[in-house]
## 1
Amino acid sequence: MRLGARGECPGYAVVAVETTGLSPHRHRIVEVAVILTDLEGNHVDRFSTLLDPEGPPGDSDLHGIFPEDLVGAPRFRDIAPQLAGLLAQRVVVAHNARFEIGFLEREFQRVRRPAVPPLVSLCTMREAHRYVPEAARFTLTALCEAAGLDVARGAGAPGKALAASALLTHFLGRGADQERHWQQARTVAASLNWPRPPREAAPVHSRGDALQLRQERQLAEQRRRREAVSYLERLGSPGVPGGVGEAEDAYLAVLDTSLEDRVLTAQEATDLAELAASLGMDQARLESVHRLYVTTLAAAMAAGGGRVAPEEQADLVRVGALLGVPRASVNDIVTMVLGAMAGDTTSPDGPSGGSPADGAAAITPGRHVLVRGRPLTAGTRVLLHGYVAVDDRELEERFARAGLHRAAGIHDHVDLLVVADPDASADRTFWARERGIRVLVEPVFLALLADLERTREDVAQRTARDAASPGAATPAPATASAASAASAASARPVPPSPTTPPAAHIPPRPAQPPSTAVPAPAPASSREPEPVLVPSAATTDATQPMPRAATAAVPARVAASGGGTGAARPRALVRGQTVPLEDLGLTGSRLRVEASWWAAADVDADVVALVLDDAGRVGGDEDFVFYNQPEHVAGGVRLAGKTGGGRRGDMRGASDAVDVDLDRLPPGREQLLIALALDESAPGAGFADVAVNMAATDPVSGARLAELRLDDAGSERVMVLAEVYRRSGRWRLRAVGQGYEEGLAALAADHGVDVEE
């Protein structure tokens, strides 16, 4: 950095600040940026850092700086010597200089050292009417746009300084430096007596540093919480504390179910009191059982690592408070548990008030394990509220393995609410209880999720082992009468299996022996499909035509069934599952997403698509592809057209599809949402009466890549089937299966489409 000789101005210093407020006498700087230029406006040096204001950072929503971002940031007094060296003998330029430079001068007055002379300044806002007269407004952004300056602005003070320096160069290019007041400013700035610049550079803490540290803290906190809440998941077999007594065992089972969400409502407390009275349990026995429950919980926590973490201790205290066990007694129980596990028999009395030996025996590993509540079942729709100690990617994979569906919000059908903190989620908990929705705290949910994953894994392994066994029995083929009885048993339409249409839709084929019946995939409740037989062609109705979705599926089946070459079976997806398109076998950039539906009444539907940005919003109405606008302006998305009827009540499937060319999606629009909307002319219809299959196919090879079966929806009138998006350079397909009761207008408006009433 060249300061220049006395009497020679080395150039300009463009400054910008972010502050905690508007008054320099009451508020402080939280970020400062300086760009040094020569007399022609060429950049010479840069300096920027966040600053610790030694108090609240002010309006974080306005400047984007939060208290955690300032951890490790220097104070103004730490950078004052270097900042004085940067400004020495230069003309200080700022946009709205009275505000920006007023804060700088006030900060120098506060710290007193080094003592700096008054700053000589020029204001780009005041000078703008001379050099950018065409500007309608004199804000920094408006001036840059009017001057045609392509400034890649960053956030905060560095971005403002960069834009102001671009304006300075523009002014100089129009002869501003020849103005008399500009020449006087350079002369005065060069004549001022400035302190010597420091030898050592000042500490710097940029927004990038703050972001990196924030991410590291979040990952560390996530790992810490993941370990802290896994004490239930680490246990081997679930079950309530047992062997205490018939009445006590019954009471503990009900108590455990009530404590799944770590909240006891007034009704639950009343029910427990009435249960205890009916079982003949007096107050002393009740207190003993409550201590036993807390002891069992403490033993489960300590079983993983021989210690009780602070989060686990807080969980114990919460449960103890609900059961009337004082905090001091909880601490004694923890001491007793840890001592018993270490072989110390001098711990405090056991949970039943007996001897230390009884207390040690009561928590011997293997005798009692903490309950995890009622088990989860595949197909449950789970809504998460609050911070979860498992990242989204891992959570998606675990949900897919367990067969669970993740609800996006309270507008979806929800079976289970998971909360990280019952107190922080009190409104959601109340909402769930009012609707009879089960509530779990995060540790219990993660434990039950692990149980369900293990159960499904065991079932899948047994199924695969039985299928590979030479003596595995071959299931008997279904008969026509059985198929007819199954069809008549339910008035609600059932969609075809992911690759085979319903029996009534199979076209006539030459009669074959029963052994050639084709196995169809099982429901999504098990990882490996179990054999389910489709009636042979001889048992089907020869007058029923086959919908388009079935036409592409049948040749991909076993060659013995009369057609095809035994192509690979498409992957059956569950709600919320995400899979890269290349893993599905997509051979190019073109993809077709098709929806087929079956209904017992007159129902029509249309496939629609929204081309979105990273924030999930459209850029304009042209990004909404639907029946009145069947092709996107960029040509990357277009409707393929309908086939089939689906309106005559005869259970014939109809289908609609959208063709996507991933290479032709506009820049910044690398997310595509595909939905199926019911005809608005039938106001009473909902997806509860319509069964849907979504299929992703490769138009080049004709292969069916993946399918999603939806036959358990509710009153939704538009159903989001899938999302296609790009992340980390890979295109991915996400099965959604969630909808809107309000219809197509709600879907469009939710993503930024201007819908006219």
Note: The chain has 21 helices and 23 strands.
## 2
Amino acid sequence: MQISVNLQNCDQEPIHLAGAIQSYGALLAFDLDGTLQYCSENAAEFLGDVPMLGQSLQAHHLSKLTGASSLISDYLVSQQNTRVCHIHTPHGVFELMLHVAAGDMVVAEIEPVLAGSDQHVFFSTHFQQLLNDLRDQTDIETLLQRVTDHYRELTGFDRVMAYRFRQDGSGEVVAEARHSSLEDWRGRRYPAADIPQQARRLYLLNTLRLIADVDEPPVTLLQRPGMPPLDMSFCQLRSVSPIHIEYLQNMGVAASMSISIVIDGQLWGMIACHHMQPHRISREVRMSCHMLGTILSSEIQRLQAVEAHTRREQVAELRVTLLPALMDAEDFGSQLRSAIGDMAGLIPSDAAVISYDGKSAVTGDVPEAFIRAWLFWLNQSLPDVYATHKVEDVPANLRSVMGDICGVMAISIDKVHKSWLLFIRRELIHTIRWGGKPEKQYKIGPLGPRLTPRGSFAEWKETVQGQSEAWSPLDVAMAQELRMDLLKTCNAHNARNERHRIQLMAMLGHDLRDPLNSITMAAQMLEMQDGASSNKLGERIKNSSMRMKRLVHQVLDMSRLQAGLGLPLDIQPTDISLLVRDMLAEHVTAYPDIQVEADIPDNIEAQVDADRIAQVLSNLLSNARHHGLAGQPVRVLLSRDTEKVNLHVKNAGPEIPAETVGVLFDPFKRRQGVSERNKSGLGLGLYIAHQIIAAHQGDIRYEHAEGYVSFIVHLPCTILGDEAAQRISH
């Protein structure tokens, strides 16, 4: 059957209906009544007198192979599994292989046995040693390398390669044994289209395939008129697709053999053998190779199970060490972030990010803009687990920050605190090397350079642009297990926070008692006094009222944050310079004894919630006033660079103790480092300031230099996302 095949339609080529065989054997096919329906053109050369198409098989037929006729007749009466018989003739020994095709056709294949092909010595002296060698391997890559060495020794092929298929169907040469004159192909990648789906199906059905001579013309299979093409899926002699023939010829390969690696009914990989000259190996050797392939599949499955068990043990070990440490930690977020290195090692990735309550820790090289944009999107979308390995699947508004990152798997740790763990993989073509020589020249057939190793590799690179290595089912399962462990711990931590909140309410009631008593007493005295005394009492009432207002606002913001509601923002274009000047003027008016030195350039603008930024500045100024050295000025500096606005609030004072720095922006720290001038504060100002800046996708940090305590705020000039001009929540 003549088939016109090109690169555009090769995936539809019916290769199981080849209509021809390789020339080193012959083929006959009978219906169940013994009538010959198909016959290769060279059958008489091998068998002698062959029935005419449409005739029944008789005892005198196939005279060159004495007994072949009766063996086929017996098989027609009682079809069994594939049967192999050896027939001795004056011309040598032949193998007769019988199987049933499509349920109603008995196929007989005949090929001469190669001289000196007795493999009993191999089995008796080498096979047990080979099995022990394979079972001693502890990782798949080393196992495949040992197998390719053994296959080359067994078969004599010039090159033996182990391919491993990826989840997208593409493949990689992961091990190789070769003649020293051949180039190194380890690390070679090729697209899934190199092995079309119909070929993969046949590799599952017929797990060993020999092409003895690429250049030998195929032998046409004659068929009785009106009969459909013969299903040759299980035929050893089936001829080869012209596309594959051209591919082998372009590489200078004259013979090849493949052995499928099948795991759980799926094509996991292949052993591929190449020879630079025609090379037919005996059926005994082929069956040895088939048996070795079956053992290899079993060993790979065992090692995969070991790998999965080992990775789950790593999660269990991390659970034993990390979770109790988190539960006992004074600073839960800091303890969680410090474990980023251990968690990153659980899932193969190029980098990892962990974020808790607006603070992030990173292992690997990840741009800050990427982290900020992704956390903002995740906090809006709130998925439990998100995984992608293609840039085209990433939300459109995030693609501009991807760079060479293509794979992201994010797991939600705690939705209350907007906490995430991100695993990151870079573009696949950045992580793969080509093992061959760039200057190597290959023969180019009529279908062009695509059907060469380097052309195939170039096609693969084109196919996988914008992709990382896909997340495996085991990767996702491990992430799910880790998420559940961290979620349970975070829930326990949140329950403890709820107890603290109740304590805070009790503490607030106590702290409000003093200013209320002061207001009550001052009001009573006002009724009895006039003049200057009443002015002083009015000032006292004003100060007590402002203190109560500040306490109430802090508690309300704290309650929203602890409930996971975030702080409402109204983002508008804002003149930051004018905002800071106004706040400084109000502060100096309210506290005339405080000196302020300011450097505020004109016309610094950004998209912010002006009221919330004013709240941040008020908290920082209040903090500087309470903790700065008496008589020393508070310094305020404002500047802008390309992408962000920078605000510095400084006060003269000693360095904050290291144990306090770690919890500066945390709530519930009232008793840590209490100032004599701020005994009644709740310790929430810096926490709320941090949350406001985080909601603006900025950051705030502490540093001490040249005798000054500094709090430094960085704000992006533009909030990422389409919601910039709308009311949004952190």
Note: The first strand starts at residue 20 and ends at 21.
## 3
Amino acid sequence: MDTAQRSGALSKIFNPRSIAVVGVSPDRELSWGRRTVDQILNSRYTGELTAIGKRAAPDSRAKWALSLSDMPEVPDLIVVAVPASAAVGVVKEAHDLGVGGAIVYSSGFSEMGTEEGAALERALIEAAGDMPFLGPNCLGIVNKQIDLSITTTVYVVRPAQPAGPVAIATQSGALGFVLADLLDGAGIGYSSYASVGNSSMVDATAAAAEILTHESTRVVVVYLEGSINAVGLAELGDRAREMGKFVVALSVGRSAAGQRAALSHTSAAAGDHLLLEALCRQHGITLVGSDEDVVTGVLDALRNRPLPPNPNICILTMSGGAGGLLADGFANLNVRVDPLRPELIQAIRDMGIRDAGVSNPVDLGGNFITLIDKLPDLIALICAQQDIDGLVLYLTFGDRAMEHYQKLATIIGGATKPSWFIWACPPQGAVEELGMPGVVFTTTAGFLRHIEVATAAHPPSAVIEAPASRKVGLREGTSVLTEVKASALTTAAGIRHVDTASSADPLDVVRQVEKRGWEGPFVLKIDASDIPHRAKAGALRLGVTREILQEGLESLSEVAGTLSTDPDCVLVAQPMLAHSHEIALGFVRDEIFGASLIVGMGGADAENPHAARRALLLPTSRDEARSLASWASVALDVPRDEIESAIVGLGDLIESHPEYAEIDINPIIVHEGHLVAVDALIIIND
């Protein structure tokens, strides 16, 4: 079943007409079964509630039965609050009776990390059959639309914001309520909550898809850990977009690149989190990395003013220093601060703003207070410009202009484009009184942190296929096309490769060099399928002059005889091109995320975990390729049209060769302002 089908089967879990709690001990008030019954009774839930245990509590307001089979009618939902050893039998009984769904609190399954626990969880899944259940090892659900809380946490009895537009689906039950508390502190109430625990049958994406359908939900927060259901997450993002709703995902457990058993630099650099970022970006999901960033992502979603990729922001400030800080911070986030067009500058002058430094940032000067009446019109003018994607206003103090500052905050909050107000060093309590989190900030650092999250998701235009089942990396049944053969294919795909002379005979290579009229210096290589990383193996020579070319090739030929048994082994000579910097372009076929293009810094930085890189899941669209190229043109300083052509060409090559497992084009140098590949590798699933 896809995510929508799975979530549709969950309706009786989230909106049950009748509930049975199995494992209620009347004498143990702190037992999970008893606490659950008490919690439901103390709410305004109007459905039927039955407590199942060895005997009823004398003061119980719930119905009571010895077992599920003793109930006069089959309940929509059961809550399993018995030890793991007994939970399997309870779930089997519920399935056989036709119960609609279950919440399994019980722990002692695969989370224990033992084979016994894993076997018990497999038995639980088998016992459930087609009956959906949350858990095991979960913390229940909350649905404030029907005043239902099935959980044991004390958090739900605390005073809190009224039910709001946010829903939470989480693998970690406790962290889900922590997120609810942080949202509550920002003035945002939650309406639904689901803890999926071990996700044996229902994972967080399926639970999120169900609560996304609730009328009160505008934003669903998903907490992910461990293995990611890439297809389910993509479906969730697409479904939210179709409904005009939003998804904010918090993920932990980033995989180290070294964990990937891969041959190519590209594959080694393609950590799970890089591919997860690509999935979220392409499917409109805001991916964040901390609990506080969840609040930022939700606030931005509720405002529904998304920034495009590589946005152009206009800065209005009364401090040149602050404008510089913001511009530098934006540059680190690949946000542009483009100079204003001459026509816009003239329009600003025509408004009577003549003493300001009109460029971008727009420096209103220390005497900006004389212009404060003009700022609303200036904000409207800038927001009306098609080439400007957002605006930030930076002002300080405001003690003598409180009314103006409050008005400006309101205008910024209602602007037609994403806009923010940094009110630095405000009078005590002034910003809190406004109650505009996510719009008004008191520091540039806090604002830039917000922007980093706000640029994490963009409107999607691609849908990924089910992930391939094959793992990447050199293994049995895999062959390698090294540079001479691989470059012919990548060149045909439109990716320019450095001119190459190759032969098994050193003298033949020399003759090819002479025929081409190359003067040197040269790069010499051994090209063999069993020497993929030539620098590490001593199969590479740099800066070889014309005078010692033959000697260098003969020396390398002797090395090849000791390193390689590849019958197609050849020697390679190439002109050593001067260049400014290096990038890498590649492809991996991941068993979780499927086929992915990756572009980033190249050469020695190809596997640097801190180097700039970005992924694009396939199949994709020209718009997504163009968006990736725009990012690369700024972050990697490469010609935008050429990198776009390379991305599209590589994508077409992959589509026509489903047997390709990896492609590694690294490095691609920037030579005289153009991209030139100087190495290539293709791994094929035979």
Note: The first helix runs from residue 3 to 8.
## 4
Amino acid sequence: MLARHWTRIAVTLIPLFIALLHAGGVLPLGLLQRLDDVLYDARLRATMPRTLDERIVIVDIDEKSLAEVGRWPWGRNRLAELTDELFERQQAALLGFDVVFAEADESSGLKRLRQLAQGELKDQAGFAERVGQLGSSLDYDAAFARSLQKRPVVLGYYFTSDREGRTSGLLPPPVMAREALEGRPIRFTSWNGYGSNIEQLARAAPIAGFFNPIVDGDGVVRSIPLLAEHRDRHYESLSLAMFRTLVGLPAVEPGFPRDGTVSRSYQGLESVTLRLGQKTLSIPVDDRVAALVPFRGPGGPAGGSFRYVSAADLVGQRLPPGSLKGKIVLLGTTAPGLQDLRVTPVGETYPGVETHANMIAGLLDGKLHVRPDYAVGYEVVVLVLAGLTLAFALPLLSAAKAVGASVAVLAAVVGLNLWLYLGAGLVLPLASALVMVLTAFALNMSYGYFIESRSKRDLANLFGTYVPPELVDEMVKDPDSYSMAATNKELTVMFCDMRGFTKMSERMEPVQLQHLLNQVFNRLTDIIRANRGTIDKYMGDCVMAFWGAPVETAEHGHLAVKASLEMANAVRRLNEEHRVQGLPEIGVGIGLNTGMMCVGDMGSQVRRSYTVIGDAVNLGSRLEGLSKAYGVDIVVSETTRKIAGQFAWQELDRVRVKGKEQAVAIHWPLAPADWLEPAQVDELKVWGTFLRAYRAQDWDQCDVLLLNLRRMNPKKYLYELYSERVASMRLLPFDPEWDGATNFETK
């Protein structure tokens, strides 16, 4: 019976083959890796204990502390007082610093001492006595060093990587000799530079650890390297250094895979081993000698995982004596301005200091999840078993039984993975198996049961001239969901007008003008279709399109803005070609608006078209006309901007167009948000300040800000336009009823 289905079996095996190539590293698929990260994050969030760990306390340099004590960095005398408070009054067991002291403290008193030494006050009585008093009392680094000395303190530092390999401060001694690796090429996380503590402090507190996390490709911190490499020497992380200090500073040794467990070509460590006399403790690590952070909860003072104490309360001795007795204390910050907030699986603004607290808690509990070295072998075995089961079973089953079999295989794959995660702490690949099972099922069902019906062919013929082929392919999968009947939907409409064609038509031959117009329309149409837009019509030298129908698209606003930016860039490239060919250049004006529109098949018995109508459509047309007035190529309404995703915007104005009583804000999309240069970011900040002054009718401040803006970008017509407006409005009396909007009476 299987012989009759060999083609169908082969089709079902295609996803298995691709998944095996991915698992073996032959054809790595970034999408699957990203999905694996998403699945890991979901498992982590679902299984977090969300309970308070009372062993660890975070002393927080928060906004309150900065307001009371002063901006960071604080004087070392303050830090000495804080350290003494923690150990003498509060009786803390261990203190770790998630900050670095890379420069010597130079107080205002020391500056005065330097003035005395330079002889500026030598003619005054008691010079020698003053110098002695100042010198003995204002060496704050020495005072801080004395407070650290002979106490259970672990300092923090960081590694860097750049071309020059800059270094500062004094590194602690490495914790593992290179000879211990037996010449094996371990894939440590490696850096060529560092920023460490000044020598005076580093010698007072010789135990230190780096606080660098590992940032994955999606910008999320999921793991911390326990050991890292710098110039063939190996150093420990802050969390490992604190844990070792707690358990008596055991020696650090590499934990190699046991004989026979992996091939001899394996390049990683199985664990980091801590040895103290005859006792050993193995900490599992991945192939980067890193461990996944065992996050306990959402993070932050309100997260409920660890107790947070404001540093200001300790400096002010507002905490009762002995409140932190026997506690492990980490000094760090949650203040946004100090830039130690991380993106993690459990929060997008997660305090960096709390990642170390979680790691220390995991080390104390012996509960660290790890991606084992045999993860690839596990992935291959699961893929083969699941893939072959589906390939040989599905062709023999009815549609309903095939669905049941696929769900059963899927449940088995997910269940096994979750059982190993919860029971053994193993983080194993899941995405490739999930995608393979789903894809194999889809291909098998499509091959076995897909029959192209008349309704699907009619639908493709009906909409084929309006929408891209890719959208038609989506529509034919469910033809009953689409029709030409008019309906109201929230859509995004675009009007794009080519500037300069009127003058060209007076100087160019009709055939030449036709060729040029077709060339431009072809490029712009390709961009609209590539961004899932529907072409409504061409009107002379204008093209009208919309997004969100007939195929519903949740991100219709984002796609429309993206298409408009690409169209403007395409016209610029086309003009470069025209300059080389001696052809006239053209301009473009684009208007975008989002709102409720009536969409459907409209017209007469002679001619009909699938189009949109409504007040929101008319506003889009008006906005296209405003692009010339503001000297920009794209004008976008406020409703579109709100749903358009991550772009950098410059608000142009608030306008009241013909036929509309309500003023609307209009914007100019500059580029994707992460493409802006720092100078452009600064320019937009100044522009935002200017608009507030403009709407407050503060013309003097407007003049100053416009002067700065024109210096930043002297070629931008927008600033020249507002300079003329300010000069004109300065002549008018203050109008308390003015809402800051500009009225346009023409279409």
Note: The longest helix spans residues 399-424.
